[in-house]
């Protein structure tokens, strides 16, 4: 397993990071949510112009033709920036699924920004930003249905993350575009992709929460010196960083072209735990004010809680990984070198 990113992969990551640093700060996020909205149309248009939506779409269909390993850092950057728009799900799950299912015209419209497709999946049953969708893609193991916005009924649902507006969907119509074995396979592929890219966002959240807390601990003074000089603070943050560094290669291995569902499950578990430890430690380092909405770490904690619960819970992924442990051989070639 190669853990060094290529020049092209690094260039893609830097492009996304630069855009998000300019256009998606926590101040921007607060301004957006204070207005009662969770979607910045201008920022979405900028993402469309960069071509990031089509990263995993073949070049023949108007995309960039990249692989998951090429764009995993983009998802990580979106997590670190707390991007409220559903770029990761559209880029990583929706457009690859539509391309697989032969929806060429709709893929082209989404890539141009002329259409927006929201997704319902067994592992992500509440839809993000559904009211803005021109189409709803509903996946079940029995059938995949594509419906227009006028063919569904949306009901707003509570969200732990104020930057993620969620809705449940009731179908009033729509066209079945896959069923039986084809639908079952598509649900599995999309579920694995969703879990992988949620894990990447969680890793980005974890690292950013640590970075914010380290900066705060170096600046905040108590008893005449920075609180970061005290062992208790150091140990909190060091433990969180260790969890991130253990999760990082697990995520990169899961992004490999031949990665199995079990490897992706492992990544979702590891990155979820790292984000949980990092954000909770960040809140502790910030003291009592860490629990308030005025601190950025509070926003990271809420996003981590939200992402850990979609695209499969930790229990779901533990069960999937346990099945592999019970049926696979162990040895030097079953860790990172290749799949057993």
Automatic annotation (TrEMBL):
The organism's superkingdom is given as Bacteria
**Record-linked SUPFAM superfamilies:** Acyl-CoA dehydrogenase C-terminal domain-like (SSF47203), Acyl-CoA dehydrogenase NM domain-like (SSF56645)
Presence of keyword Oxidoreductase: yes
Q: Which Pfam families match?
A: Acyl-CoA_dh_1 (PF00441), Acyl-CoA_dh_N (PF02771)
The residue ranges of the Acyl-CoA dehydrogenase/oxidase C-terminal domain are 197-325
Entry keyword set: FAD, Flavoprotein, Oxidoreductase
Example GO molecular function term?
flavin adenine dinucleotide binding
The reply on keyword Signal is no
Among InterPro entries, the record links this protein to:
AcylCo_DH-like_C, AcylCo_DH/oxidase_C, AcylCoA_DH/ox_N, AcylCoA_DH/ox_N_sf, AcylCoA_DH/oxidase_NM_dom_sf
Name the cofactor(s) required for activity, per the record. FAD
The Acyl-CoA dehydrogenase/oxidase N-terminal domain sits at 6-115
Hey, which family's this protein in?
Belongs to the acyl-CoA dehydrogenase family.
| Protein's name in the database | Acyl-CoA dehydrogenase
């Amino acid at each position: 397993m190669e853990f060094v990113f290529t020049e092209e992969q690094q260039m893609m990551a830097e492009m996304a990071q630069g855009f998000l640093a300019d256009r998606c700060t926590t101040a921007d996020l607060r301004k957006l949510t204070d207005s009662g909205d969770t979607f910045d149309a201008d920022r979405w248009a900028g993402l469309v112009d960069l071509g990031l939506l089509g990263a995993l779409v073949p070049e023949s269909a108007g995309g960039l033709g990249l692989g998951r390993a090429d764009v995993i850092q983009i998802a990580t950057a979106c997590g670190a920036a707390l991007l409220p728009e559903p770029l990761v799900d559209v880029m990583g799950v929706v457009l690859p699924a539509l391309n697989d299912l032969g929806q060429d015209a709709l893929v082209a419209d989404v890539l141009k920004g002329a259409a927006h497709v929201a997704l319902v999946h067994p592992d992500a049953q509440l839809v993000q930003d559904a009211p803005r969708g021109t189409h709803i893609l509903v996946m079940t193991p029995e059938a995949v249905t594509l419906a227009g916005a006028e063919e569904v009924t949306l009901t707003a649902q509570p969200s732990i993350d104020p930057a993620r507006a969620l809705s449940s969907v009731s179908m009033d119509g729509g066209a079945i575009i896959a069923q039986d074995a084809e639908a079952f396979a598509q649900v599995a592929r999309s579920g694995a992709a969703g879990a992988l890219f949620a894990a990447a966002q969680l890793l980005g959240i974890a690292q950013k929460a640590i970075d914010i807390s380290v900066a705060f601990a170096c600046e905040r003074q108590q008893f005449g010196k920075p609180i970061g000089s005290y062992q208790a603070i150091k140990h909190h943050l060091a433990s969180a960083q260790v969890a991130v560094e253990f999760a990082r290669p697990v995520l990169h291995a899961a992004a490999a072209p031949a990665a199995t569902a079990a490897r992706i499950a492992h990544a979702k578990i590891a990155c979820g735990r790292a984000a949980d430890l990092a954000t909770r430690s960040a809140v502790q380092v910030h003291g009592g004010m860490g629990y308030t909405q005025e601190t950025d770490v509070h926003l990271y904690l809420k996003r981590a809680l939200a992402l850990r619960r979609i695209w499969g819970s930790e229990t779901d992924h533990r069960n999937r990984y346990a099945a592999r442990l019970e049926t696979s051989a162990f040895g030097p070639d079953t860790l990172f070198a290749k799949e057993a």
